[in-house]
TrEMBL record, chains A, B, C, D:
This is 3-hydroxyisobutyrate dehydrogenase. One of its GO terms (molecular function) is oxidoreductase activity. GO terms for biological process: organic acid catabolic process. Residues 4-164 form the 6-phosphogluconate dehydrogenase NADP-binding domain.
Length: 290, 290, 290, 290
C-alpha cells in the first residue's frame, strides 16, 4: 500500500480520494476550505493537513484536482506548494483539466527536483468519480512515473492510458471537449428542428439512434434536451474554461477550430440566459424563440 | 406474397429490390437506364417494364428510390408516372431522400386517386441496402398504408417506424443529417487538432471513445479520417443535396441551423478540392494546410 | 418620349413609375391589387390596365418591379404576361431582385420573341425610389437593349451600369447583399461589445468612423443600432429572400459563403423575436441577453 | 516645448517619435535593439538611452509603442521600466494595442506613483504614422492626464479623443478591429462570388461602392483583393494578436463575438497558407479552390 496525498476535495477530488481509502492506501488530504477537508476526514478517516506542502511531505504519490492553471501553479509551485516538500522519487499526478503548457511547466519543475510528473485529466463527471469508473488520460515525460501512478489511479478509474510526453493527457482531454462541442451543437440543431417539425424526439432517437448520427450525447441527453432540463451534468462554466484552453492550444499548434470557436461564443448566449450551472447540452436553449 | 413494383435500381434501389425477390415477392422493376434494369433481371429474374406506369399497373405496392424532388415528381406524377396506372387501394412508398413538401404533394395526389402513400427515406448506406438491414423512417397520413407497407419493407430493413403524417419520414431523415453535420465537423476539428498535437489518433479514440465524446462516426471513421481516406461511404454530393433540403425545410419551420449552414458551406470547400465522391468525413481535409 | 409600361406599383415601383411621368413619358401601369393602380392614376394621371399583357401592348419599354422569381415568371411568362403582347423590338426591364436563373430564362424567352431583355435590380431603398436616385445594376445579352433602356431608367436612377450578360445585374445585386451581411454582423458585434464595455457609441463612431472600419452602415446605422431602433429601412424578410437567392447561386457557382450562410441563420433568430419588418441592422438584437 | 521620452521605435513608433522632433519637442528615445535607436538618432538627432528607465528620467511625458501586453509590462513595470524613474506629475502614454486589463494595471501602478496614465492605441497604420495623421483612442482615469498628453500627441495625430476611464482607449480600438473582421469576411465572400460569377470587380465596386454595402475596405482594398495582392498593409499576425485581445475582453464582458471568433479561426487558415505578413484582406484567399 502506498502513502498518497490528495489536494483538492471538490466535486471530483473528494470521491476520488475516498476511493483511495477504500483501496487500502494511506491517504493525507488538503483542501483550501478547511470545512471540506474536515467533512472528508469525518467520512473516510485518515488525516488532513493545512497546506499542500504539509500533506505531501512523506507521500509516495501526490494527486491534485483543483480548478484551473493558476490554481495548479499555486498548489504545486507556490511557497506552500507540494513540490516544496515532496521527496525524491515521488510522483506528482495532476487530475485538473488545465493547459498543456502548465503540464510541461510542472513536469520541468518536478524533474528538476527529482520528482516524477503525470498530467492526468479525467472524464466521466461526478457520477464517474463517485462510482470510481473515471477515464484518465495521461501524459508523462518518463514512462516509469506513469507506471508508478497507474495502480493507484486504478482505485477510481476504469481506463487509464499513457498518450505521450507531458501535456499529452491534457491535449487528449482537449480533443474530447472539441469533439463534444460540435457534436452537441449538431444534436441541438437536430432536436430543435425535430420539435418544430412536430416530431416526437423519443421516437426519432429510437429510429436514428443506432446509425450514423448516433452518439453518447444522443443516447444520454436527447430526452432531457427535448424537455429543456439541464439541472445536472457538466456545467457550462466548466466547458467554457475547457474550450478556452483548447482555443489557446490550437493557436499554438496552428490548428483551426472554427465550429469550436463558434460554439464557445454560443455558450456565452447560454451564460447570458443564466445557464452557468446548466449541463452543456443547454446549447439547445439558444435555438428557441425569445 | 405481394406483387411489388420497384422504380429506380441505383446503388440503393438495386439491392433493395433484390431483397424483395429473396423474400418471395413478385417483383416488376423499372429503371430509366434500361441496361441497369436488364442487369438486374439477369441477376434476380422477374420482369422489367419500360415506364414507371407500366411497371406499376397491377402492383399492390410500388416502391421508388430515385434521386431528388424533381425525379420523384417525374416518376410519380409525370405522364408515364406510377400514379397514372396504380390500382385503387395500392400503396406507393417513396424511399428517396427528398423534401417534406414533395412528400405532402405526393400524399395528396395519391389520396385523390384512392392510393396510399408512405414517405420512407432510409439510412444505412449501400452496405445496409446490400445486407438488407436498412433503417426506414416513415411518414403517412393514414396508418393503414404504413401497415400495408411495413412487412414488405421488412425484406430489406432492420428497423422501420412510423413517425407521423406524410413528410414525417423525410423530416426525421433531416434530423439525422443535421446531427451528422455538426458531429462530423466537431470530430474533424478534434482529430486534426490531435494530429497537430502529435497524438496517436487510435490511442486517443481508444481512451475517449466510450465517453461523452463517443459517436458512431468516431468509432467507424476516426481511423480513416486520420489517414485521410475517403474513397467509400456516403458521398459529399449526396450530403450537400440532403443539407439543402434541411436548410429549406428549416426556413419553412422557423428553425435555426447555424452550424449546419456553415458545414454546408465547408462542404463546398471539399467540392472545390475535388471531393464530390468522397465520404462525408472528408470535412477534415479543409483543416489541413494548403 | 417613349411609351412605357410599368408592372408592379409597390413601395419601389410606385414612385419609380411616377418619375417616368415627370420625365414626360407616356406611362401605362398595371398592379395586381387594382386599388393601388387607381390611386397611382389619381396621383399621376395616365392609364392603368387590368392585365400585364394589356398594359404592355404598344409599349416601347416594359418595366417590372414585383416580388420574387415566381412573381416574375407569372407577370412575364404567364397567359396574361407581358411577353404575350409586347411588340417586336421592344425591351423588357426587370427591376425585381430575383435569381440570375430567372433572368436568363426571361432573356431567352424574350429573345425568342424578338424582344430585348435587361435584368436591372436596384439599390437605394424606398427613399432612393422616391427621390429618383436609385442605383441600377444591369445585365443584358445585347448592349442595344441596355442602351435603349438606359435613358428611361435615368428618370429614377443616379447610377445605371451594364455589368455583363443577362443575369449580371442580379449577381451584382447579390454581391451587394453578401457584403452587407458580413458587414452588419461585424458592426453589430462591435457596437454590442462597445455598449457592454461602457463606451458611448456616438463617440466611438466619431473616432473610428473615418478609418479602416468605416462603412455606410456605420455612418448611417450605428446610432439607431445603439438605440435598438429598427422601425424603418430594409426589412429582414426581404433580406432573407435575397440571401436565399445568393446562397442558391453560390451553390451553382461553387462559391463559398460561410459567414453569409451563418448570418442568414442569425436572421432567423431575429424573425423568431418578431423582427420580420425590422431594418436589417436588427441583427444586433440577438447579441443581447434574453 | 516639452521633454518627451519615446520607448519603442518600430514601424509605428519610429516615425511617431520623428514627428515629435519636427514639432520642436526635446526627445529622448529607447529601443531594445540598439541599432534601431542609433539609426533614429542619425536621422532625427537628439538622444538615446540604453534603458526605458534612463530615457524617462526627466521626461514630462513618456510615450510607448511596443508589441503586446507582456512587452508593455516589461518596459513600464520591469526593473528598468519607465515607472521606476518617471517624475511626479509626469504622464505615461501607451500607444501599444494591448488589453484593457493591462491598461488598468498600468493606470493603477502609475497613480500610486503620482504619475498620470493614458492608454492610447492608434489606427491609421504605417502610412498614418509616417504622415503624422493617426487616429488616437484614449482612456484615462483623470482628464488632466489626457489634456496634458493631447497637444503632444497632436504632433502625429489627426484625431485624438478621450473615450472613458483607463482601458477605454483599448476597448475602442477593439471595437474597430471587431467591425473590420466581419466586414472583411463579408467583402471577401462578395468579391470571390463576383469573380466566380464572371463579373468585373472594378465595375461592381463602381456601382455598389457608394450605397449600403460601401466601406473603407471596399474602396481601398477591393481591387487588390480581386488581384490577390497582399504585400502591404496591416499584417495578419498583428490582426490575430488584436482579435485574441478582443475575444478575451468579450469573455470578461459577457459580449458575444460569433463571427469575430470564426474569422479569427479563418485567419489561422491564412497563416497555414503562409500569410503571416499579408494584409488582413487576404482572408479572401481561403475562398479559392485548392
Ligand atoms: N465536475 C466535473 O464533472 C468534471 C470536472 N473536471 C475537472 O476537474 C477539476 C475539478 O473540478 P471539480 O471537482 O468539479 O471542481 P470543484 O469546484 O468542486 O473543486 C475544486 C477544488 O479545487 C480547490 N481549489 C481551487 N483553486 C484552488 C487554489 N487556488 N488553491 C487551493 N485549492 C484550490 C477547491 O478548493 P475549495 O474547496 O477551497 O474551493 C476544490 O477543492 C476541474 O479542472 C474540472 O474542469 C473534469 C471532468 C469532469
Ligand atoms: N447512396 C447512399 O449511401 C444513400 C442514398 N440515399 C438516397 O437514396 C436515393 C437514391 O440514392 P442512390 O441509389 O445512391 O442513387 P443512384 O444515383 O445510384 O440511383 C438513382 C436512381 O434513380 C434513378 N433516377 C434518377 N432520376 C430519375 C428520373 N428523373 N427518372 C427516372 N429515374 C431516375 C436512376 O436512374 P438511372 O439509372 O437511369 O440514372 C437510378 O436508378 C437518393 O435520394 C439518396 O439521397 C439514402 C441513404 C444512403
Ligand atoms: N503596424 C501597424 O500597421 C499598426 C500597429 N499597431 C500596434 O502598434 C504596436 C507596435 O507596432 P509596430 O510598430 O508595427 O511593431 P514593430 O514590431 O515594428 O515594433 C515593435 C517595437 O516594440 C519594441 N519591443 C517589443 N517588445 C519589447 C520588449 N519586451 N522590450 C522592449 N521593446 C520591445 C520593439 O523593439 P525591437 O526593435 O528591439 O524589436 C520595437 O521597437 C503594436 O501593438 C501594434 O499592434 C497599431 C496600428 C497599426
Amino acid at each position: 500500500m502506498a502513502h498518497v496525498a490528495f489536494i483538492g476535495l471538490g466535486v471530483m477530488g473528494g470521491p476520488m480520494a475516498g476511493h483511495l481509502v477504500r483501496a487500502g492506501h494511506e491517504v493525507t488530504v488538503f483542501n483550501r476550505t478547511t470545512e471540506k477537508a474536515d467533512a472528508w476526514v469525518a467520512e473516510f478517516g485518515h488525516r488532513r493537513e493545512l497546506t499542500p506542502a504539509a500533506a505531501s511531505e512523506s507521500a509516495d504519490l501526490v494527486m491534485m484536482c483543483v480548478g484551473n492553471d493558476n490554481d495548479v501553479r499555486e498548489v504545486a509551485l507556490g511557497p506552500e506548494g507540494v513540490l516544496s516538500t515532496m521527496k525524491d522519487g515521488a510522483v506528482l499526478v495532476d487530475h485538473t483539466t488545465a493547459s498543456a503548457s502548465v503540464a510541461r511547466e510542472l513536469s520541468d519543475a518536478a524533474t528538476a527536483a527529482s520528482i516524477g510528473f503525470v498530467d492526468a485529466p479525467v472524464s466521466g463527471g461526478q457520477a464517474g468519480a463517485e462510482a470510481g469508473i473515471l477515464t484518465v488520460m495521461c501524459g508523462a515525460d518518463d514512462r516509469s512515473s506513469f507506471e508508478a501512478a497507474r495502480p493507484i489511479i486504478a482505485s477510481y478509474a476504469r481506463e487509464c492510458r499513457l498518450l505521450g510526453p507531458s501535456g499529452a493527457g491534457q491535449t487528449t482531454k482537449m480533443v474530447n471537449q472539441i469533439c463534444i462541442a460540435g457534436l452537441l451543437q449538431g444534436l441541438s440543431e437536430g432536436i430543435a428542428f425535430a420539435q418544430r417539425a412536430g416530431l416526437d424526439v423519443d421516437e426519432v432517437v429510437a429510429v436514428i439512434g443506432k446509425g450514423a448520427a448516433a452518439s453518447w450525447q444522443m443516447e444520454n441527453r436527447a430526452a432531457t434536451m427535448a424537455a429543456r432540463e439541464f439541472d445536472f451534468g457538466f456545467a457550462v462554466e466548466w466547458m467554457r474554461k475547457d474550450l478556452a484552453i483548447c482555443l489557446t492550444e490550437a493557436d499554438r499548434l496552428g490548428a483551426r477550430l472554427p465550429v469550436t470557436a463558434l460554439v464557445n461564443q454560443f455558450y456565452q448566449d447560454v451564460l447570458g440566459a443564466g445557464g452557468k450551472r446548466w449541463d452543456t447540452s443547454s446549447l439547445i436553449t439558444r435555438l428557441d424563440d425569445r
